[in-house]
Structure formats: C-alpha cells, structure tokens
Design a protein that fits this description.
Strand order of the largest sheet: 2-8-7-6-5-3-4
CATH superfamily of the largest domain: Type I PLP-dependent aspartate aminotransferase-like (Major domain)
Structural class: alpha/beta
Order of helices and strands: EHHEHEHEHEHEHEEHHHEEHEEEH
CATH class of the largest domain: Alpha Beta
CATH architecture of the largest domain: 3-Layer(aba) Sandwich
Number of helices: 12
Largest sheet: 7 strands, mixed
Bound molecules: pyridoxal-5'-phosphate
CATH topology of the largest domain: Aspartate Aminotransferase, domain 2
Distance between the termini: 59 Å
Mean pLDDT: 96
Number of strands: 13
Radius of gyration: 21 Å
Shape: globular
Low-confidence stretches: none
Strand content: 15-25%
C-alpha cells in the first residue's frame, strides 16, 4: 500500500552510494592528504570545549563568513569589495547546490549541465523535480562557448552549472571564455570553484559585475572535508532569492567555530596547498614516463588519465589496496581519476601503473 505514496519520478532513481573498499591508500575522493599540525589541533580542542551546546548556531554564520572573505583576499590576492550580505555558508557546498536549484528551478524547468561534471548537480536537479539536461563537452573536454550558450538558451535553462577546474576532468575554461558564457547565457551561471585553491584563480571579484553569476566555494578540498563547510557568493538580488530557501540554522556551531579558527591560519592552508601541488608535479612527471597513458591537463588536486584497459587496472589497484575513481561508462569509460596523496601513497600507485603498463 505504501508503494502508492512513493514518487513516480524517482522510481528508477538510485541513491548515492559511498562504498568503503577497505583500501589503505585512498585516492578516490579528492580529499587533502594532510591533516593540520599539532598546535592547531590543540586550539581546535579548546574551541570545541567552549561551545554553547544548549544554543542554536548563528543562523547567518557571520563570523566564519567574514573570516572566509578575509581568507579569499589573502589567498587569491584579489580586491573584493563585498560584505557579508553577499556570502552565505552551507553545510558543505552540496547544500548550496541544492539551495540554488530550489531557488531557481521549479518542477519541469531545465537545468543545463555540461558533462562530464560533478554528479550532484544532476542528482539535486532530479530530486527537485527539475529536468537536468546533460550537454557533452567537445573533444578533450573543451568547451565551445557559442555552441554551449546557444544550447543553454534554446533549452530555456534556469541554471547552468560549471565546475572550474572541472571535476572529474581537472581541466579549466579560461577567464575570457567564462566571461563570455556568463554574458551569453540567459540563466543563472554557477561557477563552482571547489578546486580553486589548486588553480590559484577565482571569479569572486566579479559577482557584482553580473546579475546572473553565482560562485561556489568549499573548504572540503583544502583539508576540512570532515566539517562540511561551503560558501555561496552572489549579488544582493540573487542572495535575496537564495535566502528564501535557506534552512534557518543550516551550519552547526562546531563547524562554524572550527572553520573560523582554521581560516585564520592562511599560512597553514597555503603551506598544505603547496605540498599538494608539489605532489601533483611529481606524480604528473612520473605518469609521463609510463607508456600508453593519456593525461589530461590538471589544475586540481587530482588528475584524469585515459588508458586502454581501465577496468582491469582499476581492479588491480583495488586488489593492491589502492582506491581511485573508476567511472566505467560513457565519455569516461576508459578513464581513472586519481587524487594526489602523500609521497608513499603516490609511489605505490605509480609502481602498480608501471607494472601494468610498461610491459
Ligand atoms: C567536492 C565537490 C563539491 C562538494 O563540496 P562539499 O563542500 O564537500 O559539499 C562541490 N563541487 C565540486 C565540483 C566538487 O568536486
């Protein structure tokens, strides 16, 4: 009887599965391989002790938002003249993606998603009863601005989601093309900069120049995946719409306080990012010495590689306790996405790949 109450449109819908394959070397989720130093951990413990657990969190996450804006100015060396009216925090940027869709897409509205791309855009689109329309990228995952914007406008899409650098390809769209996309597309253009720290560029300084631009950021890839903290930045008019759908106390106090403390330590964050990009350089050089691998250029903390027998190699890696991301279908059929780990982890990966491919 209860079956009659289930949503017809979600009948064939599969829940998002996070599998633990029991691997010791985890290079499949684009996390940072670095934890924070001991002295910061001690301060974090003190912060957690001092929290007023009987009270609701700050509904606007004001302190952590202010510190995030400061962090952005320092990290990206941009002049941003925006205040806390133009930023909101989310329980991970995942929650903010969901808010964007709730705010701008009603049932049946099209959402444009160039693919390959981050899978959550489609997932939240479907849950909202909107229609996610996937638009394949060109060869080598390049974007043809005219073609894309014509499609987006023909679809009458409400929202266009771009991850830049792209997950899972690691590639970028350059600034000029991004600006053309924002200007040509008659919809909300979301630039998801989850990997911005590894690229070194941001569009946050442009949110006031365009009426349709939203920039998304997250602390997950820079070493704070555990606390779930993301940010959305946009002009005042867009913000008014987003606030209509924002759950009142969406970011818990522990996350706000830990985020605030860590964001004061830009030096530690920068140091960790530098260590990750140094591993990127090392891994890329090693991969170049292996036969029959196509490497896509990466501006991220992971690299996408294309090989003939991706499934076989993926299974060999799992058997050897190394987990990478395997897609197994479509445009990414022969691709593996590999997050950079520490030197020992990277060497384990490289030696398995050499074993398999340098024959
Ligand atoms: C990891 C990732 C996110 C998710 O970030 P959370 O803040 O952890 O929810 C968003 N967008 C892209 C492109 C990502 O790869």
């Amino acid at each position: 009887m209860v079956d009659n109450l289930f949503r017809e449109d979600l009948k064939d819908y599969e829940s998002y599965k996070v599998e633990d394959k029991g691997c010791k070397v985890v290079l499949d989720a684009n996390e940072s391989f670095l934890n924070f130093p001991e002295e910061l951990h001690e301060q974090l413990s003190q912060t957690v002790k001092d929290i007023l657990y009987n009270r609701y969190p700050d509904a606007y996450s004001s302190k952590v938002c202010d510190l995030y804006l400061k962090y952005i100015k320092d990290f990206y060396k941009v002049n941003i003249n925006i205040n806390n009216q133009n930023i909101i925090a989310g329980n991970g940027s995942d929650e903010l993606i969901q808010m964007i869709i709730s705010a701008f897409a009603s049932e049946g509205d099209n959402i444009a998603i160039p693919v390959p791309n981050f899978s959550m855009y489609k997932l939240y689109g479907q849950i909202a009863g909107a229609v996610p329309v996937e638009i394949p990228l060109e060869d080598d995952f390049k974007t043809d601005v005219n073609k894309l914007s014509e499609k987006v406008n023909a679809l009458n899409a409400k929202v266009l989601f771009i991850s830049n650098p792209n997950n899972p390809t690691g590639t970028i769209i350059d600034d000029e093309d991004l600006i053309r996309i924002i200007e040509k597309c008659n919809c909300i253009v979301v630039i998801d900069e989850a990997y911005g720290e590894f690229y070194g560029k941001t569009f946050i300084d442009k949110i006031m120049n365009y009426d349709n631009l939203i920039v998304l950021k997250t602390c997950s890839k820079m070493g704070l995946a555990a606390i779930r903290l993301g940010f959305l930045l946009a002009n005042n008019k867009i913000m008014e719409e987003i606030k209509k759908v924002k759950p009142p106390y969406n970011v818990n106090t522990v996350t706000q306080e830990i985020g605030a403390l860590v964001l004061k330590h830009t030096d530690i964050i920068k140091g960790n990012i530098n260590k990750i990009t140094a591993e990127r350089e090392y891994v890329i050089n090693e991969l170049k010495s292996i036969n029959n691998i196509k490497l896509y250029p990466t501006y991220s903390n992971f690299v996408l590689i294309e090989i003939d027998n991706a499934e076989k190699i993926y299974n060999d890696l799992i058997k050897n306790g190394i987990s990478v991301r395997y897609f197994g279908k479509g445009q990414l059929k022969n691709c593996l996405r590999i997050t950079f780990g520490n030197r020992t982890e990277n060497n384990s990966l490289i030696s398995r790949l050499k074993e398999n491919l340098n024959k």
